[in-house]
Amino acid sequence: MLVLAHLAQSFIALFQKGGEVFVGLVTGILPTLIVLITAVNSLIGLIGEERVNRIAKAATKNIILRYTIFPIMAVFFLTNPICYSFGRFLPEKYKPAFMDASISFVHPITGLFPHANAAELFVWVGISSGITALGLPLGELAVRYFITGVIVILIRGILTERMTIYMMNRKNNQTVKA
């Protein structure tokens, strides 16, 4: 009987812990996300969605800019996770590659701009404490992380775009040009 009581307590404790996490989200990141989404949508409304779409289309015509500058701007200004909403300005065939590039950049930006992804800060702090213990400068590491991140997101963006277009062509039996 004692075992059953312990199992029942453990079972309900799991859901109580889940409830605590949920309350933490409701009082923590969710209000920030809601306000940020509202602000971004308001700004788009003020500027005009057609203008914003034209600017985004011009900024993403070039494949290099599409998978470097565009994701960097998204992650820097909107931070993780709302940065992925920048994908709404892209044609469907580019959205998976933009997501891949953006997701891949949320850590490398943290060394220079911790606000962009506070959830990943513990990784940077762990690595930087080891570098500090060795007496090496953190600034150089942060810049190298950033540059390496830009190179990686460009490669991932291009490869994912090519794979997406290939898969779309296979599925639709038609040509979707890059």
In words, what does this structure look like?
With 178 residues, this protein is an all-alpha fold. It has one domain. Helices cover 72% and strands 0% of the residues. The chain is built from 8 helices and no strands. The protein has helices at 2-27, 29-47, 49-59, 63-66, 69-78, 95-105, 121-133, 138-172. The longest helix has 35 residues, at 138-172. The radius of gyration is 21 Å and the shape is globular. The model has no long low-confidence stretch (mean pLDDT 85).
How does the SSE layout of this entry go?
Blueprint: H1 2-27, H2 29-47, H3 49-59, H4 63-66, H5 69-78, H6 95-105, H7 121-133, H8 138-172
* Proportion of helical residues: over 70%
Largest sheet: none
Low-confidence stretches: none
Whole-angstrom Rg:
21 Å
Average predicted local confidence, pLDDT: 85
| Global shape | globular
First-last Cα distance: 66 Å
The count of β-strands is 0
How many individual helices? 8
Strand proportion:
under 5%
Structural class: mainly alpha
Element-by-element helix/strand order: HHHHHHHH
Number of domains: 1
